Structures are given as structure tokens and as C-alpha cells.
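Re: the 192-residue chain
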Amino acid sequence: MSIVASPKEPISTQLTRRFSPYSFDPARTVGAADLMALFEAARWAASSYNAQPWRYIVGVKGRSQQAWQSIHDALVPANQAWAHQAPVLAVGLIRRDFEHNGKPNVAAEHDLGAASASLSFEATHRGLSVHQMIGFDAQKVRDRFDIGDLQPFTALAIGYAGGPAPSEELAERDRKPRVRKPLDELVIGGGF
């Protein structure tokens, strides 16, 4: 189902094949070994002062159904419309202060992004897809999970791309060519 990217320069196939689908195959589960490997990849992401300020809440259909349902219920309706097909839902959380000195960690969001990117590349390597979402209600996550001072920041749907599209509009989004802004717009003073 995924649309392979067409970069201007040769890059890793894990990057060209990475895809954020709106349609997941509801009949295919994600094995425990694969799921552990995804979060192991996240664990090894770089972070400021090696603080690893990210945490994940993970819900798996049929194995941790209550957590899965709580995460699904926290998604905005537009994301619920397609994410219900994903066998795994997760929430990425951040710790805003460094544990070693209590000072603010202004890199926490960046570091969660790096961890989630590592998770996504490992997923691609294993034939899985990850779709990250910002559309969820953080208070609902706080109400349903004991997360202390952690801040819910992003949600992730994980599974195998494919299956019936929840709507024609979402099917069309999955078929659209993958495009990115040109490098000269993204890199300032690159000196290439």
C-alpha cells in the first residue's frame, strides 16, 4: 500500500519506504517481539545529556485492551475514524525537567521526536507502519493513566498498512504521492 518516496539524492530505503497510512489491516496483529524491538529502537535514540525524557503508554488490541481503548478514546474524532483499525496505539510522553538536576529540559520534545523517529524506522524495517498524531486530548490521557508529571505529547498508531479504507477521502490521502519541500528551502547557508 505504501507509496515509496522519490528523493533527489540517494538515501536509506528505511526512509524512502517509511509511510504514515490512514488504513491499517485490522486482521494482522503485531507480535510481541516486533513490538519490543520498536521500543528498543526508541530507547537507543540520542537525547540531550542522555536524559531519555520520553516514555510511552502502549495499548495492544487483545493483549492490553483497556489501555488500547483508553488511548483510542483520547483521540480526536477525526483520528478515531481511522485509528480504530490499528492493532497498537501508543502515547508519547515527555518529562520536562532533567532528572539529574531538576532544571528545565528544553530539548525534551526534540528528544521524543528522535525516539519516535527511531521507532518508526525500525517499524519500516520490520514491514510495519507508524502514523503519529497530535490530535488527541491530553487531559483524557491524564485522567486514565497514572503519569505523574509526564506530559502527553503525541499519539502513535502502529500496525500493517492496508485493509479497507475507512473512507474514500482517507483512501485518497494514502494514494497521494509523497512530496517534500526542496532542500534549498529547508537548508539555510548549506554550502553544498
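Helices lie at 13-17, 32-43, 65-74, 77-83, 108-125, 138-144, 168-175, 183-186.
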